[in-house]
């Protein structure tokens, strides 16, 4: 494929607008179509981004002859039908994480990707964070030896599931935010996960009227013996000085990779709050920049150059199996479960 990649975005909310901005800034991408069931939001985004083709139904967008590639930014539990429709139409597909909330849905998407004329990439954009990418390079050089133990915590403030994205009560913190660090761990170890033991607890979210758990903790075993402790929540108070808390520690035979979101290069104290705001992605001097832009660039380049993206449908299925096993083990009060 020569020239630019004509792109359509399904889902125009908090995450969707980031994709619109990144596409608009990409020299080889053209935003040609958008879709959302919210008519007012659809009209607002169409005007702001000067988009000619606007749809309330994703079936119409994937059928549009002015679309080569589709970005799906729907709630976690709505991925399967839209993803399969895009792939069956022969469109390239960038699907927001997590791939799905059930193994059956993930496998259906993977099956559609296998026979589609389009490329598929699961948007696990954290791989493009310079710190994680640098860690991967050091591991591949052999300088640190083999990963033996990984600890990771990734959490959200409570305003994310209660105010910004209330549909998250249909998901689980492991699927929503744990998928990022589980992907990095699997990428680093280079082996599949074999067994899981997990716990979760509820209370705070249900007191607020949201039918979901507060936090989880999981112990995972990999082929070859590596072990991971993975934990996360979405009940941090709104006073917390960052929307996301993230820590990642990888102990190897010969060294350690240690990343901490609170080791910030930029902190700002305002009249009412203190924020750790070191930008990992966002608008810098009028242009989107950072790991989300780099992930999109990789997807666009793979589509135009007929290359396979580094995050595949097989990755998505493997992660979904592990995440679903975390949830199942927690629902059985910590039963040790094999990945099937």
Overview of this protein structure:
- The strands form 4 sheets. Strands 12-11-7-10-9-8-17 form a 7-stranded mixed sheet. The chain has a 6-stranded parallel sheet with strand order 3-2-1-4-5-6, sandwiched between helices.
- The protein has 11 helices and 17 strands.
- It folds into 2 domains: 5-125 and 288-312, Rossmann fold, CATH 3.40.50.720; 127-282 and 319-338, Dihydrodipicolinate Reductase, domain 2 (2-Layer Sandwich), CATH 3.30.360.10.
- It has helices at residues 16-25, 39-49, 58-62, 79-88, 103-115, 130-141, 159-164, 173-189, 204-207, 291-305, 313-331; strands at residues 5-10, 29-35, 53-55, 69-72, 92-96, 120-123, 147-156, 193-201, 215-222, 227-233, 244-252, 256-260, 267-269, 274-276, 281-284, 287-290, 337-338.
- The protein has 340 residues and is of the alpha/beta class.
- Helix 8 (173-189) packs across helix 11.
- The protein is 36% helix and 27% strand.
- The mean pLDDT is 94.
- Strand 9 and strand 10 form a beta hairpin.
- The chain is globular and about 50 Å long.
């Amino acid at each position: 494929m020569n020239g630019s990649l004509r792109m359509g975005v399904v889902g125009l909310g908090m995450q969707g607008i980031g994709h619109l901005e990144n596409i608009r800034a990409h020299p080889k991408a053209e935003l040609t179509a958008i879709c959302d069931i919210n008519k007012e939001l659809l009209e607002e985004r169409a005007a702001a981004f000067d988009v000619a083709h606007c749809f309330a139904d994703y079936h119409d967008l994937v059928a549009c002859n002015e679309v080569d590639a589709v970005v799906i930014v729907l709630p976690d539990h709505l991925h399967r039908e839209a993803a399969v429709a895009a792939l069956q139409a022969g469109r390239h597909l960038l699907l927001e994480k997590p791939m799905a909330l059930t193994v059956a849905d993930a496998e259906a998407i993977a099956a559609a990707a296998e026979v589609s004329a389009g490329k598929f990439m699961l948007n696990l954009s954290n791989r493009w964070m310079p710190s994680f990418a640098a860690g991967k390079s050091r591991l591949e050089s052999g300088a640190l030896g083999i990963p033996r133990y990984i600890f990771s915590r990734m959490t959200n403030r409570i305003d994310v599931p209660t105010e910004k994205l209330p549909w998250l009560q249909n998901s689980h913190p492991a699927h929503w935010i744990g998928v990022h660090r589980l992907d990095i761990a699997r990428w680093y170890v280079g082996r599949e996960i074999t067994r899981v033991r997990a716990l979760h607890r509820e209370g705070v979210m249900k007191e607020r009227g949201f039918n979901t758990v507060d936090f989880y903790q999981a112990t995972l075993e990999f082929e070859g013996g590596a072990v991971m402790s993975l934990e996360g929540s979405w009940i941090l108070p709104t006073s917390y000085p960052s929307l996301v808390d993230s820590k990642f520690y990888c102990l190897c035979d010969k060294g350690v990779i240690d990343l901490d979101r609170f080791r910030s290069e930029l902190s700002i104290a305002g009249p009412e709050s203190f924020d750790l705001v070191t930008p990992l992605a966002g608008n810098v001097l009028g242009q989107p920049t950072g790991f989300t832009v780099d992930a999109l660039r990789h997807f666009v380049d793979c589509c135009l150059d007929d290359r396979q993206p580094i995050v595949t449908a097989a990755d998505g299925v493997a992660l979904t199996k592990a995440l679903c096993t975390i949830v199942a083990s927690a629902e059985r009060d910590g039963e040790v479960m094999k990945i099937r």
